[in-house]
Design a protein that fits this description.
Distance between the termini: 55 Å
Number of domains: 1
Strand content: under 5%
Oligomer: single chain
Number of strands: 0
Radius of gyration: 19 Å
Number of helices: 5
Largest sheet: none
Order of helices and strands: HHHHH
Shape: elongated
Helix content: over 70%
């Protein structure tokens, strides 16, 4: 997960959360520049419409990074840096998984509360 991926992820999170943070959006859009016009996982990540899309696009980023690491030899000067990026990417992946799980739990809790309200009020 390099700077471009983080910028694209932030843009996607802003979009799906409904936040209107123009300063952040402007900063991240400037960081990505022409990359936002190219088809691919960065553009898709930045333009995600929902959490499921965001996670899928992010997984594409991680896969790309894993493929890059697999092609490097251990004595390559970029190997350690790429490994560190993969560790950071795993942490972000875990956070996105937790965010999704939290959202699902909240939705399930609302359903249980709704059912309970009917049980109490319909007696």
């Amino acid at each position: 997960m390099a700077c471009h991926e983080i910028s694209a992820l932030r843009l996607g999170l802003l979009a799906i959360s409904g936040q209107d943070d123009t300063a952040t959006k402007s900063k991240e859009t400037k960081e990505l520049g022409e990359l936002l016009k190219r088809e691919g996982y960065l553009k898709n990540l930045a333009e995600a419409k929902n959490l499921a899309d965001l996670r899928q696009c992010y997984e594409e980023c991680v896969t790309s990074l894993e493929e890059r690491l697999a092609k490097l030899k251990a004595n390559n000067e970029d190997y350690g840096y790429t490994q560190a990026l993969l560790v950071v990417s795993k942490k972000i992946e875990l956070e996105l998984t937790e965010l999704t799980s939290s959202f699902d739990r909240f939705n399930n809790d609302l359903n249980e509360m709704h059912v309970f309200m009917h049980e109490v009020l319909d007696e």
